[in-house]
């Protein structure tokens, strides 16, 4: 029931995302274009070429961030964990900035060099945190501390790059860090969707193990979970998901934190339900944020990263204070 | 399943937490491990459970490696953060066989373990809502649901009031006999150990200083050596020893 409602919400939000923009389009016309039954070439061009990639990107990136947040919160036994709070997004941001600063020196076009840099450094950040986890006697608390250290490290490196960058590069870096869906294209959507389609089933195969891990490392080990190997697999999955999501749209906070919390309230902690629910809710939240980003000032699209944080913070506070107390 | 330890030791860096412990635990029997805080009881149990590396030898019916799933381990900490239902928690005891679609076997074993411990009534409640004593029963059911042959329990009654202590230990002894389990339990309460265990192992500073039936092992001298207390020992109604601690031995700590 709940999952059907969430999926319906996502569909509604997706349709609204396609209908909003510099020109508000009637929903019926948008649906006719999607069904291939519209003769209006102008309208078709707007919907299919401009807005469809953005709408799809919001959904797949939101889903990837939702799942990676849920996995992080589970393996680190910490409700504040997400790829944003633990420095993986910061790593991606540094990677992207590095590519912007290096600019024309690379044999790859900017359009792909920046995402590749972001993807690679999301992996580096993940490897740093997971590397601490390989130390003997590493506890979830230690991993969280490692993640926070990682966040500060990459923020410092990013500041250094911004200090050294030319004014033009600096502007590009700042804009990239805002997070924006405007750079979406169907090819990029396909990349994120493929990563999601490859990683999610692998995570779901370990669903029972993740559920058991929530009872604590020792008890999980007693039940037969190979905790260290499971965490390592999960870190690889998180780095792929976050890397792919952040690479194309920039750093977007709070989706990875909030979506799993809402999903947990709706679906419980059985990870067979929690992971898919986090994906759907992440997609729904980012899609809704995309609609809002276009409605704040008609004719202007606010950077999505700013919108998710501005809506996300009060929403999260309400969630924790009002609903969390039940 | 017969569990045999010979010269078993556990080291944390340069510190020896357990040294040269040799003992045998037999099926259908409860072995209680007692000793002061820091005497190595938990380390010994964790070594048997395979959670920390050890030296010396550990044999399972003569084999060097326990069959998968043969050992059920219940850690001391019974906090539960996860918003899981009691049924889900007990179901996780079947983790080794759980598939995406839960098989009827796993559901049946879960229901049976809940019934065995008399907690079927709160199968749908959240684990976090339960009292410490109820949670302990749930985690015991979880371990039993996996149908282990060896049961390792770290202070299964330390958080419980006396009624729950008696209840848990009674259920534990019954399950041990009925299922033919080899049960090794770290216990804090000497009288609980004397009453429910077939054999006690007494540890001090990582070494074994006493091993045998409670009536033979528990003596005034041994309690002075293991716990630094002066105690009176009398015979209880069931003939087993009852320990009354009187005072701390001067310079004991």
In short:
With 326 residues, chain A is mostly helical. Helix content of chain A is 77%, strand content 0%. Chain A has helices at 2-19, 27-34, 41-75, 88-102, 110-134, 140-164, 167-178, 186-205, 207-213, 217-222, 227-249, 255-267, 271-295, 304-323.
Number of strands of chain B: 11
**What class would the helix/strand composition of chain B place it in?**
alpha/beta
Tell me the total number of β-strands of chain A.
0
Estimate the helix proportion of chain A, in percent.
Answer: over 70%
Major β-sheet profile of chain B: 6 strands, mixed
Strand order of the biggest β-sheet of chain B:
5-6-7-3-8-9
Secondary-structure element string of chain B: EEEHEEHHHEHEHEEHHEE
Oligomer designation: heterodimer
Described by strand count, sense and barrel closure, the largest sheet of chain A is: none
Poorly predicted segments of chain B: none
Features:
heterodimer; A: 326 residues; mainly alpha; B: alpha/beta; six-stranded mixed β-sheet; 31% helix
Can you tell me about this structure?
The complex is a heterodimer of chains A (326) and B (253). By secondary structure, chain A is an all-alpha fold. Helices cover 77% and strands 0% of the residues of chain A. In chain A, helix 2 packs across helix 3, helix 12 crosses helix 13 and helix 13 crosses helix 14. The radius of gyration of chain A is 20 Å and the shape is globular. The mean pLDDT of chain A is 87. Chain B has 8 helices and 11 strands. Chain B is of the alpha/beta class and 253 residues long. In chain B, helix 3 crosses helix 4 and helix 4 runs parallel beside helix 5. In chain B, 31% of the residues lie in helices and 30% in strands. The chains are: A mainly alpha (326), B alpha/beta (253). The interface between A and B is medium-sized, with 22 and 28 residues.
């Amino acid at each position: 029931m709940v999952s059907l409602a969430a999926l319906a919400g996502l569909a509604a939000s997706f349709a609204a995302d396609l209908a909003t923009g510099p020109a508000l389009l009637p929903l019926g016309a948008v649906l006719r274009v999607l069904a291939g039954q519209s003769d209006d070439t102008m309208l078709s061009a707007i919907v299919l070429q401009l807005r469809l990639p953005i709408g799809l990107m919001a959904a797949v990136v939101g889903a990837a961030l939702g799942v990676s947040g849920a996995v992080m919160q589970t393996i680190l036994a910490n409700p504040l964990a997400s790829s944003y709070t633990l420095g993986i997004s910061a790593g991606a941001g540094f990677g992207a900035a590095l590519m912007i600063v290096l600019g024309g020196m690379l044999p790859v076009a900017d359009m792909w060099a920046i995402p590749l840099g972001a993807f690679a450094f999301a992996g580096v950040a993940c490897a740093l945190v997971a590397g601490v986890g390989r130390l003997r006697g590493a506890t979830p608390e230690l991993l969280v501390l490692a993640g926070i250290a990682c966040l500060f490290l990459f923020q410092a490196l990013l500041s250094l790059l911004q200090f050294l960058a030319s004014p033009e590069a600096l502007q590009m870096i700042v804009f990239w860090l805002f997070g924006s869906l405007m750079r979406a294209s169907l090819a990029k959507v396909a990349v994120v969707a493929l990563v999601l389609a490859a990683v999610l089933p692998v995570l779901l195969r370990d669903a029972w193990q993740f559920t058991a891990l929530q009872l604590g490392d020792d008890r999980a080990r007693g039940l037969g979970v190979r905790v260290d190997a499971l965490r390592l697999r999960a870190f690889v999955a998180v780095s792929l998901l976050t890397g792919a999501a952040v690479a194309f749209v920039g750093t977007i906070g709070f989706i990875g934190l909030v979506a799993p919390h809402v999903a947990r309230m709706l679906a419980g902690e059985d990870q067979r339900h929690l992971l898919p629910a986090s994906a759907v809710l992440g997609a729904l939240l980012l899609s809704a944020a995309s609609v809002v980003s276009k409605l704040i000032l008609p004719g202007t699209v606010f950077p999505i990263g700013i919108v998710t944080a501005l809506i996300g913070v009060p929403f999260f506070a309400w969630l924790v204070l009002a609903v969390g107390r039940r | 399943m017969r569990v045999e330890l010979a010269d078993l030791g556990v080291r944390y860096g340069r510190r020896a937490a357990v040294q040269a412990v040799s003992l045998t635990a037999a099926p259908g029997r409860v072995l209680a491990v007692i000793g002061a805080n820091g005497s190595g009881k938990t380390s010994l149990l964790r070594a048997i459970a395979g959670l920390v590396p050890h030296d010396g030898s550990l044999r399972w019916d003569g084999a060097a490696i326990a069959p998968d799933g043969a050992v059920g381990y219940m850690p001391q900490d019974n906090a539960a953060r996860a918003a899981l239902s009691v049924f889900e928690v007990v179901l996780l005891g079947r983790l080794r066989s759980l598939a995406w679609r839960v098989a009827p076997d796993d559901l049946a074993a879960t229901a049976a373990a809940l019934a065995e411990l008399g907690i079927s009534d709160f199968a749908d409640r959240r684990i976090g809502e339960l009292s410490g004593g109820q949670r302990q029963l749930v985690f015991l059911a979880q371990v039993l649901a996996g149908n282990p042959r060896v049961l390792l329990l770290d202070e299964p009654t330390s958080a419980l009031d006396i009624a729950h202590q008696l209840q848990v230990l009674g259920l534990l002894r019954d399950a041990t006999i009925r299922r033919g389990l080899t049960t090794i339990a770290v216990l804090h309460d000497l009288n609980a150990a004397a009453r429910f265990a077939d054999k006690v192992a007494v540890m001090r500073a990582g070494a074994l200083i006493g091993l045998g039936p409670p009536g033979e092992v528990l003596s005034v001298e041994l309690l002075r050596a293991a716990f630094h207390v002066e105690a009176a020992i009398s015979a209880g109604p069931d003939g087993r020893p009852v320990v009354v601690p009187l005072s701390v031995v001067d310079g004991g700590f």
